[in-house]
Amino acid sequence: MSRETIDVQTFARNFERYLEYPAPTGLDVKTRFQDLPGWTSLQALIVVAGFECDYGVTVSEDEFREADTVHDLYSVVVRRMAE
Amino acid sequence: MAVFSISDLRFSAVCTALPIQVVRNQDLGLLSQTQTEAFARSVGIQTRRVAPASICASDLCVAAGRCLLDRAGLRPAEIGLLVFVTQTPDYPLPGNSMLAQRRLGLPASTYLVDLNQGCAGYVYGLASLAGLMSATGIEKGLVLAGDTLTRTVSSRDGSTLPIFSDAGSATLIERDLGADLMYFNLGSQGQGADIIRIRGGGAREPFGPGSLVMGEESDNVARAPIHLAMRGIDVLHYCAKYVVPNIKELLDFANIDRGTPDYYVFHQANRIVNDCLVRQLGIPADKAPETLSEYGNTSCASIPATMCCRLSERLACGPTKLLLSGFGSGFSWGSALISGKSVQCFEPLGINEADGR
Question: What is the pTM of this model?
Answer without folding.
Answer: 0.93
